[in-house]
Amino acid sequence: MHTLTSIDRSRAERYEHLLQQAEALFTGERDWLATFANAASLLYFSLEEINWAGFYLYKDEELVLGPFMGKPACIRIPLTKGVCGAAARTQQTQVVQDVSTFSDHIACDADTKAEIVIPLIKDGTLLGVLDIDSPLQNRFDELDQRYLEQFAKLIIDHIEWK
Ligand code: SME
Questions:
Q1: Residue with CA nearest ligand 1 atom 5
Q2: Residue 1 reports pLDDT greater than 70
Q3: Do residues 124 and 104 lie in contact, with contact meaning Cβ atoms separated by under 8 Å?
């Protein structure tokens, strides 16, 4: 059983703070593009040891690059490819501790060693995915997953999707 360490507690506190900031940023603005752009920036500057944070949007049966922070990335990802494709296809969060072991991983940046991808589902419809990359192996754990899924839900609940 995983016991909560003081490091976990302080990480949890930081995530709680991040969610409060997100709530304040997203409240009163329903434009999805503005909200996604601010969300990418907030994640990029709030999370430690990450090198990319952003969105891919589901459009014409593939994922298309949306607002992000980090180096330029591949623009189109079919649902059959990559960690992003797997998250969109299965509608389940994908946590990859070492991208070199994920045969299907799409390497946009050679520095990336670990990745978490959260599907964005609104009223049963796939909108896209939230993708966060790290230059450290084993960067993302259950605590990251839990809070980042809450972050994704917060975005979905605040936007108007057209
Ligand atoms: N590595 C991802 C592609 C997107 S970039 O990491 C920004 C994947 O395998 O789906």
A1: 108
A2: no
A3: no
